[in-house]
Amino acid sequence: MNSAPETTNTPAATPGPATANSAVAAAATVITNIASLVTNDPSLGDGSPLGLIQDAAVVIDGDRVVWVGESSKAPATDNRVDAGGRAVIPGFVDSHSHLVFAGDRTAEFNARMSGRAYTAGGIRTTVAATRAATDEALEANLTRHLAEALRQGTTTFETKSGYGLTVEDEARALRIAARHTEEVTYLGAHIVSPDYADDPAAYVALVTGEMLDACAPYARWVDVFCEKGAFDGDQARAILTAGQAKGLIPRVHANQLSYGPGVQLAVELDAASADHCTHLTDADVDALANGRTVATLLPGAEFSTRAEWPDARRLLDAGVTVALSTDCNPGSSYTSSVPFCIALAVRDMRMTPDEALWSATAGGAAALRRTDIGHLSPGARADLTILDAPSHVHLAYRPGVPLVREVWRKGERVS
Ligand SMILES: [Zn+2]
C-alpha cells in the first residue's frame, strides 16, 4: 500500500489558499469516508461558499492539507482514518475572547436572570480578582478554558487583556496569553481603570503611552471598548492610532450597547474587525459594506444579558463579511462554545446554517486576517473537526448536543 499515485505535479504544499491538489507523500494520512466535507473553497465541490464535497476524503501531510476530493479518488497513504460517514468541517476560528481573568461572576448572572437589580461592579469585580491572582493561577485558568474550547472544535482563538488596567497587569496578561496563541490583543482600554475614575484623560494618556510601550511587544492587535461609559470616539481614535504607530492592527468593540462612532471609526482606520455591531445605522452598514473591516457578531453576549440580537441578515444582505465568535468572558458571555453560538445565530439571528458555519470558520479567519486557517483547501493548515453527525447543519439542528467527535490541529489529533 506504499505506492502513492500523485494527482498533480504541484510542488510541496505552501500556506494559503490553493486550488490544485498537491503531491501526496506516502507517509501522509488520509481521512476517508466523510459524508460531507466543508472546505470553504468555492472552487471545490458544489461551488457554494462552503465548497461542499459529498463522500469525501482529506489528505494531511505534516501540518498541512495536501489533497481533498471524492473518497474514491483519494491517493493511497500509509495512514488511513475512517470518518465513518460523518461530516468534517474546518476548525473553528474564535476571533474574540477575553480569557485572561480570575474569579467568576455567578452572583451577577444569577441576579440578572432572577430579575433583581445588580449594582456591584461588573468588569471591576473581575479586575480586582485578576490583579490579586498569581501568574500561575491566571495561566491555569486560561489553559482550562482553552482545553474546553478545543473539545468543542476551536483550533484558533484570539484573546485579550483588559482585566488588569495597570501597566504591569496588562503586560502580564498579554505575556501569559502570548504563550498560548499568536492572536493577542491589547485591550488596556476595556474600561477606564477605577484608579482613574476622576481623570479619564490621564488614563487614556497611560493607555497610549507607558502601558502601550509595555504591552506592544506581546500583542498583534489593539482594541478599545468604544461605548458610552467606556471610551468615546475621540478617545478611541487616540488609542487605536497610538497602537498603529507601534505596529499593532486595530479591532474595535463597537456599537454593542448603543449607537455610536465605533463602527465607522473601525472602517476609517481599516480595523480588521468591528465587534458586536448590535446597534447600527444605515451609514454604519454602508461603511462596513464598502470597507474591508469584518463585522464580528457575538450572540453569546446578547443571550447572556437578554439583549436585542444584532441584525445579521441586514449585514449579510448588504454584502458585509460576517464573523461569529464567542466573546467568552466571565461577565457578559461565559461560553466557550462556538457550536452554541452557531445555534443562536441560526435560530435567533436568522443566519442560514451554511452562513453560520462559514462565519465561525472562514469569517473568523478573515477577522484575524489569516489565509492559512478557516478553510480546508490544499495548502491550508490541517485544522479540522470530525462531527458526530452526517452534516454541519446538525450544529444548529441539534443544539446543546456534544457533536464534536475529533479535533485535529496542525495535522495532529488533539481531542
Ligand atoms: Zn469583548
UniProtKB/TrEMBL annotation:
Keywords: Cytoplasm, Histidine metabolism, Hydrolase, Iron, Metal-binding, Zinc
Highest taxon of source: Bacteria
Main location: cytoplasm
Entry binding sites for 4-imidazolone-5-propanoate: 105, 163, 190, 256, 332
Annotated EC: 3.5.2.7
Reaction equations catalysed: 4-imidazolone-5-propanoate + H2O = N-formimidoyl-L-glutamate
Entry-linked InterPro entries: Amidohydro-rel (IPR006680), HutI (IPR005920), Metal-dep_hydrolase_composite (IPR011059), Metal_Hydrolase (IPR032466)
UniProt-annotated binding residues for N-formimidoyl-L-glutamate: 163, 329, 331
Binding residue positions for Fe(3+): 96, 98, 253, 327
Protein name: Imidazolonepropionase
Record organism: Streptomyces purpureus
